[in-house]
Amino acid sequence: MRGVAAAIVLMLTAAPAAAQVTSAAPERASVTIYRSVLTDTTADRQNPSTGLAFVTETRTIDLPAGVSRIRFAGVADTMVPETAALQDLPGQLIERNEDFNLLSPGSLLAAYVGRDVRLVRTDPKTGRSTIRQATVRSGPDGTILEVDGGFEALKCSGLPERVIFPAAPEGLADRPTFSVLADVPQAGRYTVKLSYLATGFAWNADYVAKLDATGRSLDLSGWLTLTNNSAATFGNAPTDVVAGEVSRDGDTAPPEVEAQAAYPYCWPRAVKGAPRPAMVLQAPSVGYAAAPMGLDDVQEIVVTGSRIARQSDLGDYKLYTLPEPTTVAAHQTKQVRFLDQRNVPFERVYVARLEDPSDVDDDNNMLAPQVLLRLKNEAARGLGKALPSGNVAIMEPTEAGGLALAGEHRIKDTPVGLPLEIVAGQAMDVSVRVTARDLTPSDRGSERYRVEVEVANDKPVAITLEFAQANMGSSFKVAHASRRSGLRDGEPRWTVKLAPGERAAFNYEVSWTY
Amino acid sequence: MSKVLVSAAVAALVAGAAFAADAPKLSLTIYNSDLALVQDVRALDLPAGRSRQEFKDVSGQIRPETVSLSAAGVGIVEQNFDFDLLTPQKLMEKAVGKQVRIVRINPATGAQVAETATVLSVNEGVVLKVGDNIEVLRDDDIPTRVIFDGIPENLRARPTLSVTLDAAKAGPRQATLSYLTKGLSWKADYVALFDERAGKLDLQGWVTLTNGSGVSYRDAEVQLIAGEVNLSDNEADWTRRNYRPRSGPSVAGRETGGGQARPLADYYLYPLATRTTVADNQTKQVSFLDVKGAGARKGYSYRTYGFETMQTAQAVDVSVDFANSTTGGLGHQLPAGIVRVYVRDVAGEPKFVGENRIDHTPQGSDMSVKIGEAFDVTVQSTMVEQERVFRTRTRTKMMYVLRNARAVPVTVTVRQDGLGRDAKVSDESLKSRWQGARALTWDVPVPANGETKLTFTTEADW
Fold first, then answer.
1. CA-to-CA dists, residue A194 to A61, A64, A234, angstroms
2. What is the pTM of this model?
């Protein structure tokens, strides 16, 4: 029995020759946050495993000469340990470890199997406690103790009982611990940089397009919305965000950590009334260093609007650096402006698009045109800025002098030079009626339709209407059109300018094969 | 100013006689696929004749059919792996028909009454015979302790391996216990620092091994096997093959902290340079590769499998391309893993720019690691025209507009897959290269802040 006990002690101790050094917290940290599209903000706020940030911490450590185990406390709880890198540490890095054997009621009992503890029983009447020396004979899933030569189950008698352990076992920690084993030639104070990837951080872009009263230009402002779903707070940290699609791998995630629970798991008892619930032996999966209860609901939203984020290039991505160091606090959303463009000219067009002519029938012959704000992302046209994908809220002035939300649209990543189209919503008082006649010959493997288009503008202003025939795929062809069409984004498109109250009609033939 | 704590070295606490005297040798051979071979050399002091040895500190995820114990002058009678765990319920069930002591505590006075009882059954409650009376344990909710005289031999705190041995003569000797276990695995993680301007790549490789097997392996020799090891469904097959890894000389110091790959059959074996402790619930990383200045370049590419008309432009892929060859400055077998690519930002700080998975890659391979999509380089394709030239033959005219908003010219490799049989290409605005019989590529130069239209016509049977 003695041999077994000794073996357990040895397993739980760290490498005996190494000095133990703890770096409690970073002096400085900088954070780079990668974009995640938070489609469901409410769900993602609860989930610290989505999103990604690259954290660089500066720490000062006093090291003795020789082999040391350096423990880094205060890293982000969502750190992905295999991505950690340590710079500026002299000597040789022997290994890096992430230990996630957590101290819990269950792991404590498991570590003490075969070892001596004290058992305290309290008399419910007198309040007097008796303390007995006991040996743990089985672990957390139903504990058996050896007391005074007999064997008893813990917490099965109905008496108040507790166990006192002489010491917390080595190797069990309150939270996952990152450490490195390094051989340093010379004792001294060293400043090192620890960098790693961590999940739970995200950002996305949001735009507001405010139309002016003339309806010909707009003010476009862009906001970076930063979200920190982790429990880590980086105070006064230089922060930037990366726009562009960065390849990710699902395995880049913090280790799944389970805390071991302790269950009495007693023998069956006849309980009158309700049936005994089935005993489930599975330890509950504990979230990775979960926030204190109740704190999850505290969502702080900070808006810092006075200054604007700087944009630079990072490889083939766009990097936006926040104007000044900021505190990226746990469970916080923060907004910073990155774009403020005034008087950007745009063209308002109405676009109707016909997909499959064979779907058109008497009940389904009206197309709903969309209102489109068309811009060109060029400096000469008032813009010329990289625009990361995001939602655009379109605000239009009302006659009363206020503003109204005219629509919302998600734009893709738009580099300089590309057209930018913002869909504001469905048009009113602009109608597009189509009729399609089936000309498909019976013996051929192709489809052919003659399409009649009638358009009308019942608005009090002149409009530009575009009608597009969707590309139907193989051998797609449009012919015999009564009006000249152009080609835009691979599709034939007819542009019709309509004065108030004006109507127009044209027709064409379309064919394709399956 | 951060607080720095230095605590004294932790001395070895207690060293049991069995551990101190005979310098046990523990070695782990860990595979990519949630599997490890544990070889545990320890001293056994055996009496002559039959004896039973228990090994309590073996992995809880052991595959018991793979256990083998060998020692000089010792025959194995039988091996048992007992996983009947000691719990209060099991203890009570095994006490059926036997006597236990019960101690009732009067809740009003605290007075204790001890009695002897016989357990009659354990079914939805414990039925006892106390004196001449039949009672249900704690039917009245009065606190009642149950004291057992002993624990049945086959109930244990944790899964235990026991081997019955037959020794020719008494005395201490070395025994080697080996078995396969799940719960241990490893993968490779790479850190690639890419310097686009210099065309150089610094590549660091880390072995990441994870122990979830339930026990710690102290001071073990560790070697890692890269490659897909065939695992039969019938796990017992393994014992018949009687696997024996090579034991070679130590290769400490050749590369940072790690080892050098030595071929083992059709796998690669990486021994770690120093012994290490692989603790339970631990992820451990050891460097195995550190190459500076390997030649590398950035590549832009777009690959499509059909003739598509895109309504909006799409960003092209960005990759870091390098040759895993000695002449290119690399030339190592690279075990499968995730490559994470970093570049330096304007301030010179490395920043993460993307990650991707690589397969086991032998020396001499050309590698292309996609790191993401280029914000400023886009492609938009249009199927300009398509017609049937024959019953089963189609001619397609395609246009790819490549736009570059960067201040430097780029070259995008466009790959058109999915061509039919007997494909031909004509009227191309740039010269193409065939990639096999059904795919074409073009290297399309796109000027800074400009665009290039790639047009071509293909004809193929379908």
1. 12, 19, 14
2. 0.81
